[in-house]
Amino acid sequence: MIRATATILTFLAGCCAATAQDLDPALERARQLGREHRYEELIEVLARFEDLDDPEDQYIVAAEIGRARFHLGDYGGANAALRKAVALRPQRVETALYLEATSFLTGDRDQAYAIFREIVASGATDLYLAVTLPGERAFLSDPVVWSILDELATPVVIDLDRGSILGVGLGQSRVEVEQRFGAAPTPDGETLTARAGPYLTWAFGFDTEGRLAQVMLHNEHLLRYTPYRLELGSAIDSRSTPEVATAALGAPASTSPSGDDVVVMVWVRDRCRLTLEFAPPLSPAPPGVRSDRPMLRVLRMESVTPEAAEAAR
């Protein structure tokens, strides 16, 4: 009887033991559960695979479980799983982003800062997940986060006299602009755009001859979700106010309120029209910016003919 019982237990253990061959269908099931936000079931499906021998398998299971625990709000459990995953595959950016978030949320700020610094220093241009996964309001209320962004900022130099941005000038061909920014070719008539997460950060518009005719930079989205920082001359930057712009550029050709405390100001040069839109910043405001005062939100630069420029003055 004892021998029979031992045989049955051995058989059952063999049936229940997870193998690498079982992992692929389990992952497919787990990812479907994730798409359905059934995270507790996802963890149950993958829990028996945590002790597989292959490091890649270990990484995949730990990363999936860590993300599931994160979405359940179990930040301590998520942190433990994600630490294991990142130790196995430190080059996987998505997992590092989740570990940054759980570190911040569980109070390990130094770990969160270190990961965020590495992400920004790597040349990443879309920081949306790095900012929002830890909780955007709390993360952007932390002065250390802003100090990292300011230290590793990428200047976006705008030359108003030449009508250029980052070395690309109004009037240049679509092909030249696409090559400069490493963008895939776009059909004629389409605007070339960039985003950080769901937010539009900049757009390049072309005329009927395929020449760059207008540039839009959404300064506030760039400031919060990218490392890019606008520089217009020596005085105007990403945190500028209408008063700063007027002092640097002189009196605008026109100033008009646009509602909800939005102010739109226009300056005209020989072949370029500059429009700056100011509005109270999103909360939390960047350091050094008052929450109740307009800050530069959108910059637009458009080509104009000499005749139109003269008429606008």
Describe this structure in words.
The structure is a single chain. The protein has 313 residues and is of the alpha+beta class. It has 14 helices and 12 strands. The protein has a 7-stranded antiparallel beta sheet with strand order 4-5-6-12-11-10-9. Strands 3-2-1-7-8 form a 5-stranded mixed beta sheet. Mean pLDDT is 90; it is low at 1-15.
Shape: elongated
By secondary-structure content and strand pairing, the structural class works out as alpha+beta
Q: Whole-Å distance between the termini?
A: 103 Å
- How large is the radius of gyration? 26 Å
The ordered H/E elements are HHHHHHHHHHEEEHEEEHEEHEEEEH
- Give the overall average pLDDT: 90
Biggest beta-sheet profile: 7 strands, antiparallel
What strand line-up does the widest sheet have? 4-5-6-12-11-10-9
Number of strands: 12
Q: Which range does the strand content fall in?
A: 15-25%
Helix content bin: 40-55%
Q: Treating each run of at least 4 consecutive H or I residues as one helix, how many helices?
A: 14
* Uncertain stretches of 5 or more adjacent residues: 1-15
